[in-house]
Fold:
Amino acid sequence: MASLLLAVIYIAFISLGLPDPLLGSAWPSMYREFNVDISFAGILSMIIAMGTVISSLMSDRFTKKAGVGKVMVISVSATAAALFGFSVSRSFPVICLWAVPYGLGAGSVDAALNNYVALHYKSRHMSWLHCMWGVGTVIGPSVMGYALTHGLGWNAGYRFISFLQTGLALILAASLPLWKKCSSLYPAENSQKQTDKPLSLKRILSIPGAKEILTAFFCYSVIEQTAGLWASSYLVLKENVTPETAAFFAGLFYIGITAGRGISGFATMKLNDTQMIRLGQLILLAGILLILLPLGKNAGIAGLIITGFGCAPIYPCIIHSTPAHFGADKSQAIIGVQMAAAYMGTTFMPPLFGFIAAKTTIALYPAYLLLFLLLMHFMHEKMIAAVAHGKQQ
Structure:
């Protein structure tokens, strides 16, 4: 029964990845049709991100009230409806309205599923599930690319993905009895859901080690998003690589993350979450130094791929270790805030680097990544010490 439910969760993680890269793939066609400036993509992404932050912060309350299964179905359905709304939109203000459920649909289900897996499955499944998210991020742009290259338009691309999401939502809805059967295996957890009140943000931040892990998670998200967003520009402007070649090698960064998470799943059979996070940070350091040091463009390209591999285990292992560090009764609330911190990092800090690069030089790209890597490592180690001290008291 637990294995069948795990298969459903794998499907849910693919559905989480499907819509994430669509805006970037479709926007070059969309902004011309809407007759707006190309920079207006930032407005849309901000609306989506803020919706995701809000729903992540509310995930503890939603999950305690409705349960993981219902939250999952409602969230995926909301995303499917928003994607269809995108596909029929003919003006920028209308599509901004549809961006609200688009963002709200992602945060709660992301936090709820991550917490459920962290509580009930081994670390390898967390890595493989996030690998499935990567599969979704490959499928989404591929479908959009098919629609654009065959003259169907960006609207059709969003419509196709909305149909896929609707089909996945129906599968997930059919799995609701399975969630009820599996929940009977955890009576203590069910009792907690019924009696415990959702933790406030103030209460969460007062937990020993919480502020540190939130900062570490924020830093990781800054590294992943900044590295991916500005990789191609760095290779073109700093290493004099052609735009076509740079785009290809920048894509290898994401392939490195996805493949690395598949490999990480096997590595977790020998190493615990803390060891995996430290290993990822060490690999990240090696990759960033290859980009930073004046070793030529080949070293820089190799550094990007290695940076992707270094990113691979950190996100899933931080999440999976949350119940062990903070307790199963607090993990849903903390993971929800972790998701919010991650989205804040991916929303605001990569554009900040773009502003810095425009005012100075894009050569600061690896130094920017290194700064957040060092801060992430420091805060993660500080969290471990704070948690250990708290348990001793």
Remarks:
- The CA atoms of residues 28 and 38 lie 7 Å apart.
- The mean pLDDT is 84.
- Residues 328-359 form the longest helix (32 residues).
- The radius of gyration is 21 Å.
